[in-house]
Amino acid sequence: MSFRLAAYAVCIEDGRVLLARHVPPVGRPNWTLPGGRVEHAEDPFDAVIREVSEETGCEAVVERLLGVDSRVIPANEARAGTEHQNVGVFYRIRITGGRLRPEPNGETAESVWTPILDVARLRRSSLVDVGLTLAQSSPATGHVAPVPVGGLIQH
Prior knowledge:
Blueprint: E1 2-10, E2 12-13, E3 16-22, E4 30-32, E5 35-37, H1 44-56, E6 58-73, E7 84-98, E8 108-115, E9 124-125, H2 126-137, E10 153-154
Parallel strand pairs: 1-7, 9-10
Antiparallel strand pairs: 1-5, 2-3, 3-4, 3-8, 6-7
């Protein structure tokens, strides 16, 4: 089983959420939250700020921890073909500066403000649904029930 610790940014303003279009080397593009892998010895709090800057070109501050999501992706659904556990730390963030741009030499082709009501029609990562659920429900435990994956939602 592979394992990944990642930090994700949920930024909501005026009924819109900031999404990034991820274009992987293999597979189909999809929409996701800005964020990614926590580097060795890096604090997830610092990682989410770094990832927002790298992927979107914007500066951000963390407003609060939203929660943690841990999911195991079965081998037959995982990109690498082996069972994979992803532990995601979700933060509510606020953009404080910069301008949206593609990630230089990266897999984020663009970042856009998307009306929350339009998200359901997008081909997207399950991370988007987890992040929005955490932001909207603010569970006291910081834990959401598993998000069903199917249709337009991808791991």
